[in-house]
Amino acid sequence: MPEMITVQGLTKRYGRGLALAGLDMHVPAGAIYGLLGSNGAGKTTLLRVLCGLQKPTGGTYALFGGNGTAYRGRMGAMIEAPALWGDMSAAENLRQQLLLLGVSDEEKVESLLKLLGLERAGGKKTKYFSLGMRQRLGIAMALAGDPELLLLDEPTNGLDPRGVIFLRRLIQRLNRERGMTIVVASHNLDELERIATHYGVMENGRMLREMAANEIEGSLEDCYLALTGGDMDA
Ligand code: ATP
């Protein structure tokens, strides 16, 4: 399978600390790639570097099998809290996002609202949105450019059970119907186990191991504990 993301020896230094400490990563095209790691492992930093929001200190990465920035329009991302215009409605936020992409397309606004179940959010300003609604709109914004690669950082944050199920199905649908490669950083092993085709387990800014879902013997939970050295027997 060709690689959608290839990362080699990536480092990112903040002051005296290394958030990324020589990280390698290989995301096959067409994968749903679950990125796992404890708090502070460096997942968000990695995703920010991949989107060009931050410059790495060292190492290399290639997206879509190449270098350069031409690919930026082919990827979408929601990292940390979605960046929204608080005084605008969901539709206005999407219109604005599309304008930034050089598109004016009212049907697209409607279809994105529908895809994320926000068609009834009406004229409500997004600063009054619940956390779950913000997450949904953040994902709609990330999808505005019809990306081939989607990066999501803790997308189930703040979602209620219906929201979690909805998002899981959406990720599967985007992957299946549009062939989208999706990287999901999450602490929720059960959720990831239901959808991921591949995993990467990070610790201390390094990739401990990458594997396809079918290479895992037993549960993801046991595999994760074995890799991260945790003996959690109660
Ligand atoms: P979590 O699961 O808690 O979201 P994470 O795996 O996403 O964690 P990062 O947010 O990438 O981890 O953080 C990795 C390390 O880099 C942490 O030690 C963090 O304190 C540090 N770090 C991240 N951003 C900055 C920053 N802007 N300035 C200084 N240190 C930072």
Brief summary of the model shown:
With 234 residues, the protein is an alpha/beta fold.
If you consult CATH, what is the topology? Answer: Rossmann fold
The global form is globular
The residue ranges in which pLDDT falls below 50 over 5 or more consecutive positions are none
Q: What is the number of independent domains?
A: 1
What is the CATH-assigned architecture?
A: 3-Layer(aba) Sandwich
Gyration radius (Cα, Å) is: 18 Å
Largest sheet entry: 6 strands, mixed
In whole angstroms, the N-to-C terminal distance is: 41 Å
Helix content: 25-40%
Major sheet strand order: 5-6-7-3-8-9
Secondary structure: elements and pairs:
Layout: E1 3-14, E2 17-28, E3 32-37, H1 43-50, E4 58-63, E5 75-78, H2 90-100, H3 106-115, H4 131-143, E6 149-153, H5 161-178, E7 181-185, H6 189-195, E8 198-203, E9 206-212, H7 220-228
Parallel strand pairs: 3-7, 3-8, 5-6, 6-7
Antiparallel strand pairs: 1-2, 1-4, 8-9
Bound molecules: adenosine-5'-triphosphate.
What does this 3D model show about the protein?
The chain is of the alpha/beta class. It is built from seven helices and nine strands, in the order βββαββαααβαβαββα. The chain has one domain: P-loop containing nucleotide triphosphate hydrolases (Rossmann fold, 3-Layer(aba) Sandwich). A six-stranded mixed β-sheet has the order 5-6-7-3-8-9, with helices on both faces. Strands 2-1-4 form a three-stranded antiparallel β-sheet, covered by helices on one side. Strand 8 and strand 9 (206-212) form a beta hairpin. Helix 2 packs across helix 3. It is globular and about 50 Å long. The protein starts with a strand and ends in a 6-residue tail after the last helix. Adenosine-5'-triphosphate binds at residues 14, 17, 19, 37, 39-45.
